[in-house]
Amino acid sequence: MERNMSDEAKELLTKFQCEYNRSLEETFARTLAEEEDVRLFFVNDNQAWTDGRNIVVDPAMDRLFYDREGLDRIEAYLKWPKVVLVDPWNVLRLVTRAQTIHECLHLLYTDMPGSAARDPKCATRNKRKTMNSIANIIEDAYIEAVGCSCYDNMEFYLKFGRVSHLLATHPGEGTAMRLFDTSETAEPSETDAAKTEEKEKLSPEEREKREREARKAVLLMLYLDHMACVLLYPMIDAGEILPELAPYVEKTRQFFFDGSAAAKPAERYAYASKIFDVILPLIPDDSISLDTEKLERLLGGTKTHTGGAGIGGDERKGREQTVTVRLFMNRDGSERDDGAPIAQLMAALKEFARDKTLAFEVILDTGRYIPRNGGDFGGALHRDIRINEYHPAIDTSFRQAYRNIYRKYSMSIHSYNGRFADILKARRPQREDGQYFGSGISSRSLGDIKKRYWYRTVEGVAVPDMAVLLLIDGSGSMRGKRCHAAREAAVILHEVLTEQDIPHAVVEHRAEGYDPEIDVNVLVGFHGRKGEKYNLMRIHADGNTRDGLALYWAARYIKKQTANERRLILVISDGVPEHCYDEYFPPVSTQDTARAVKKIRKSGTEVIAVSLDDPGGFYCYDALSAIYPHLIACNDLTRLTGQLLGVIAKLLR
Fold first, then answer.
1. Which of 61, 309, 364, 577 would staple 51 via disulfide (CB 3.0–4.6 Å)?
2. How many structural domains comprise the chain?
3. What is the pLDDT of residue 6?
4. 522 with 614, same domain?
5. Is residue 357 part of a domain?
């Protein structure tokens, strides 16, 4: 009887099945399947499948993540270090990734729906079900062979997926012994069909026919279960088969092996068809239902192959691909023992640890709100204004939108990184001791018996000591193309500065119309976590601005959060500051903001602004020139990112 899941295990599973992990796995699936429309979902249904577009996986398959006894057996069989499966989180990741890989390989190499749906041989329900079962066994063996023949760092996932299902203490329902025992020799007991027939008081002839068909159903499933074990679980003894099934096994065994190595989907189905022809006498009529429960557990579910897995699935033609090895065997049938891929495992564990840390940060992160008094920053003019400082929670639902921008500008990002590698990195001399020749002798090395007492001076590389804060106007006038351009520029700037190890923050600000408050949204902080970048997709346009107070806040924030010698506030704006609450309009607003800029620059923080104008005009530039001594005109939004990065590069030359 299956053990109940403890409260602790339930809590861990709930955390694992968070949106961050689902999105992470979906991104992997889209990359492997080479299909951007693929969606991936977590379920607790003890099976995994795909309908051609959607992938469904169960991280808690076989309840393996809290099955210590089963995990010990798996580690021993795979010869893995004990450290791999100690953490239940690692087990959940391995189970999930193994299923995702399996289903992605089906998306790439399997015809969907299968050919049985159109095959005239499959004229009855049981014939169609039998053909599907044969094809399922062959197809699963083939795609796992593709995985270990054609992809790096994939085989240990596939082996784990197959072996874990074998050695789990509670695979689905029942024990491993019951699941994989296909050597039943006892005659079937009184069947449900027989019971029904007796109740219906059938004639002796009809009853005999029903019993004969019921017997066929039992034999057919014993045969299919046996062949699934032979092909998919060669590491175990599939046991003896009933004498009356032995001829069928002998005639079809090689068809299964040849079919699972055939490069084309049509060729694999042709082998399935040959097997079908041989075992046709075992297929009962539709008065008897086939019990495929054990076979489905052996395969880990069969929905992928039936064509009825879900709504909205796509019809797909599988690719042709030659395989060189099987998952556990060579092409000639000899056993493969490549040893445990220790380096691959350790690399995977490091990845799991990083993702676990971020996942927990996302789960536990509810965001922060810090109210501040404007008078503490900007003096009497702002003393009645409240500053709402928001540090929003990481929202991974923006992950795909962020990735779309990154992909769109990936070449530009790489180009900027290449240029910054030359421009941003300053040269400084470094001394190398222990040389056989050089520019001087080190007295500390005179005792070296190998006479390596020379030193030489070489040029090293150092990243300039600078921190950057991008302050984005979030007022309603930024709506549309300007807001979109600012969002894209923030993404590119973040990616480039991250690659160059330059501390930076991205902050959006706006004033609340007729309310005495402003919002400063710290979308990416100086000490932000990896997932904070998705919050850049929150940049939007609404309300007024109170630039003077926002700048005072930004100057204190960059100074408190960084210890860098050089500090730069980059302002993106499309007009002069206006706040309706206290008629903070020009000339008061422009004079106040100009004073703020002058004071901040005097304290050692540089302020440079970019004015966003309409094509062909410089109205915004002319208005802002009274505020910012260093102002850059931008009336072509496609140039915004280049201008921002150009400012940084110029300051760091």
1. 309
2. 3
3. 84
4. yes
5. no
